[in-house]
Amino acid sequence: QLNDFRKLQHNANDNNLSTESIDQSNSIVENKQSNTDTKSMQPVGRNNSTIQIVESENKNEFKSIEDVSKQVSNTENTATTDDLANRKVQLTQNKIDNPLAQKQERVLAQKTKEIKNTNSPTATQTKKRVEKTTSKEKTEGEEKSQNPDKECAGSRVIKLPTSFFMDAYIGPVIGNTYFSAKSVEDKTYARLRDSTEHNGVGIIAGMRIGYIHSNGMNIRAGIAYQQAKTIFKYSIEDDEKMIITTIRDDQGAIIGRDTSFEFGRRDLRLVNTYRTVDIPISIGYLSMKNKVQIGFHAGAVLNLNFTQNGTYLNQNIALVSLRDEKIYKKNIGASFFGSVELQYLLGDQWGVFVEPQVRFYPESFTLNAHPVKQNITTFNILTGIKYIF
């Protein structure tokens, strides 16, 4: 039996088998040795669908381990323990001397470990989790590619599309009116005007169209109507008041009139109104985070028309109607403003906003011939709705 085994080794060497093939043969022989106590041979377990390719000495010829196993199967079914032990030592020495066999053994061990890990329950669960995550990321990627400008929730940046928009607004106007004399002689009169005309609350309304870029930069223009107010307060000492009384008989018929005069103090409280029609133009930036957005704007307002009505004191300390005595310009030129906008999106196309605004008028409202300059700074709170095309 030992001679037959050695003959098999000789044939394998003649056919240029690599040491790796002999190692596989050794595993088969060792399997036989483990079954010598039962005096029977068990079939060597192997996967017929898996063929291990080994490299021959001349790098051109290859033989599968299955061919070697068939040759071993033709030998006797029994072998002595001493012969097998000697052969094992010899094959182990050949493996140590052959680097290629060592490398192939390491690769085979790594492959075996990977297969075992793949088939384990933990590996199966991990694989399912990876596949689920990959599928979710793929779905999100497809949605982003189809809707790159769709708004996002949370703290992610909303990329609105480049588009036009239109808004309408209304709000209160709080004016701050101040007077200054053009000469030293007119300072007393300027103080008189300042003491009798006080700030009031007016109203502003308007519409705008604009263009906003996806990066948040925008430009707006529109038309606005503003009505600023001042309160005229003045007390007249020793004011003469004429009282006319109608006299009637018992049947109710008028038989005469009685005229009398009273003297005393009279307090006046009248409302002066300053109306403007303007074209506001501005540039600004609107942030794109969440549904609540904040913007900053600055611009100029071109006046188209300026009218007023009310009462004031002239230099002779006499009450004069603003319509009777023309002291104001018909056009007050350009004014400038800055604002902060707080906007809330109701959907893809609608939004509401609040925009506090400060507006400064550098030019005096009064004519150059008038001895006193009158300037106004207004604080407006615009509230409105916006439509995005």
Name its key features:
single chain; 389 residues; alpha+beta; eight-stranded antiparallel barrel; two-stranded antiparallel ribbon; 7 helices
The coarse silhouette is elongated
Percent of residues in helices: 25-40%
- Terminal residue distance: 95 Å
> How would a textbook summarize the main sheet?
8 strands, antiparallel, barrel
Query: What structural class do the secondary elements suggest?
Result: alpha+beta
- Give the number of DSSP strands: 13
Written as H for each helix and E for each strand, in order along the chain, the element string is: HHEEHHHHEHEEEEEEEEEE
Which residues sit in consecutive blocks of at least 5 with pLDDT less than 50?
15-25, 32-66, 75-80, 148-158
As laid out across the biggest beta sheet, the strand order is 3-5-6-7-8-11-12-13
Q: Give the helix tally.
A: 7
Question: Could you characterize the architecture of this molecule?
Answer:
- 16% of the residues are buried.
- With 389 residues, this protein is an alpha+beta fold.
- It starts with a helix and ends with a strand.
- The protein is built from 7 helices and 13 strands.
- α2 (19-34) crosses α3 (65-73).
- β11 (334-345) and β12 form a beta hairpin.
- The model is unreliable at 15-25, 32-66, 75-80 and 148-158 (pLDDT under 50).
- The strands form 3 sheets. Strands 3-5-6-7-8-11-12-13 form an 8-stranded antiparallel barrel. Strands 1-2 form a two-stranded antiparallel sheet. A two-stranded antiparallel sheet has the order 9-10.
- It is elongated.
